[in-house]
Design brief:
The chain has helices at residues 19-36, 63-79, and strands spanning 8-16, 41-45, 49-57. With 81 residues, the protein is an alpha+beta fold. A three-stranded antiparallel β-sheet has the order 1-3-2, covered by helices on one side. Strand 2 and strand 3 (49-57) form a beta hairpin. The chain starts with 7 loop residues before the first strand and ends with a helix.
Length: 81
């Protein structure tokens, strides 16, 4: 059994020249996420940083269904320990 996922699974990969550039990329990503909304995919390349972001939406997952699946997953993991 695979580990359960929440409704939104956001994968991000950032490449940057400096730590300040990482922070700049994160600020850019945050602004783009607010504008793009759920399911957004972003790709950006610049002089000091680049990034790829993808929000995969699991539409049937709710808060309650996630925790029910997580409890089941953890119980099966405990059985294997």
């Amino acid at each position: 059994m695979e580990q359960p996922e929440r409704r939104h699974v956001v994968a991000t990969k950032i490449g940057a020249d400096t730590w300040d550039d990482v922070i700049g990329a994160l600020n850019d990503i945050l602004a783009a996420l607010r504008t793009g909304g759920p399911g957004v995919s972003l790709v950006s390349g610049g002089a000091t940083h680049s990034y790829v972001v993808r929000d995969r939406v699991n539409p049937d997952v709710t808060h309650d269904s996630y925790f029910a699946a997580l409890d089941e997953f953890l119980a099966k993991e405990d059985d294997h320990v």
